[in-house]
Amino acid sequence: MTNGLIDFVLVSVALLAIGIYGMAVKRNAIRMLFGVEMIINSANLNLVAFARFIPNSQGQTLALFSIAIAAAEVAVGLALVIVAYRMYKNIDIEDFRSLKG
Description:
Helix Hairpins
């Protein structure tokens, strides 16, 4: 039974590593948003996996709220990317240095 939990955790670690790589290396705003989503999905997978193997746990409910918050985060993030594209005609993060105060 714990072998199944280990499989879920390994997939979650892989998603986390891919998300961190996407956040650290890529300089495109859309790719960075994908990296954030991978990290959030990694956390959700852990919540659901542990809720499956631990009785009377509320992990699935917390994962549902996390998915709703992630959807709102993506909507705000994409709106910011669209505004930045309209201003700079580019979505490369390096070009947004002039936004500093």
